[in-house]
Write a structure and sequence with these properties.
The structure is a single chain. The chain has about 260 residues and is α+β, with helices and mostly antiparallel strands. It folds into 2 domains: about 40-185, Trefoil (Acidic Fibroblast Growth Factor, subunit A) (Trefoil); about 200-255, no CATH class. About 15% of the residues lie in helices and about 20% in strands. It has 5 helices and 13 strands. The strands form 5 sheets. Strands 1-13-2-5-6 form a 5-stranded antiparallel beta sheet. Strand 9 and strand 10 (about 150-155) form a beta hairpin.
């Protein structure tokens, strides 16, 4: 545990590359304070996993990550260079230190993973996944494959990373994706999320939109909705002209179904 905690995460090292002593870099000025922080939409899935959000593209897999198999169970590095599946976590908890890796993009398709022990994940000839490599060669490269909101990690040999159900060991033995090969790479990096600014009343088709606004502003005692029966084409034209809200109010006013009608 102590060795893991004190392992230094260095830059990506390719095989055949000479090691150079790194020079201390000057601290960059923090410019974040000069601009307003963007509003963030709450990611309920990330909240359930301690703030660790699911990577949707290969470009998301960089920096500090975890690899989740099943529900809240993460790939765990051991001090013997092997990997196993960690114990399930409670809702709201993130991965343990041994379950945290550093991802390095190789190109726009492939990545390499380094454990906290400072070793890269590699596919061996027998299909075992080990973490004993000092540098990245072809066998240390993994390709995230996405399909129908699911993901699997493809090795250089054409086999997908999985967890052996018998002993929870990390292997790559199958060329087809089954339930044991499906995983998620999670990141806790700060991200900018586009805010959904569309009011909830305006979600759906125009008929549903009109119903939503009638429910919101109805003033009648019997609580029965009174919907204008005129053709919704009127609403389509109004939306195109930028006068949707005025037209909706006018239609509600004719039905005496709006608290703001004259």
């Amino acid at each position: 545990m102590s060795d893991y905690d004190h392992a230094r995460i260095k830059k990506l090292v390719l095989k055949g590359e000479k090691h150079k002593k790194s020079k201390k870099r000057k601290k960059e000025k923090d410019e974040a304070g000069s601009s307003k922080k963007p509003k963030v939409v709450v990611d309920e899935d990330a909240v359930e996993h301690g703030g660790w959000w699911t990577a949707k593209t290969a470009g998301d897999i960089t920096g500090t990550v975890s690899i989740e198999f099943g529900d809240r169970c993460y790939l765990k590095a051991m001090d013997n260079g092997l990997f196993t599946l960690g114990a399930p976590h409670n809702a709201g908890d993130g991965p343990d230190p041994e379950e945290i890796f550093t991802a390095f993009p190789i190109n726009d398709r492939k990545v390499a993973f380094k454990s906290g022990y400072g070793k890269y994940l590699k596919i061996e000839k027998d299909g075992m996944v080990t973490g004993r490599s000092e540098a990245v060669g072809s066998m240390e490269q993994w390709e995230p494959v996405f399909e129908e909101r699911r993901m699997a990690l493809l090795s250089e040999t054409g086999h997908f990373m999985s967890i052996d159900p018998e002993d929870d060991a990390c292997v790559a033995l199958r060329k087809k994706v089954g339930q044991h090969e499906i995983c998620k790479v999670r990141s806790n990096a700060t991200r900018d999320v586009v805010v959904d600014t569309e009011p909830k009343e305006e979600k759906g088709d125009l008929g549903e939109v009109e119903k939503n606004y009638v429910k919101k502003f109805q003033k009648f005692q019997d609580k029965k909705m009174r919907i204008n029966q005129n053709d919704v084409k009127e609403l389509k034209d109004a939306k195109a002209q930028g006068s949707l809200h005025e037209t909706l109010l006018d239609r509600r006013s004719k039905m005496k179904a709006d608290r703001y009608c004259k």
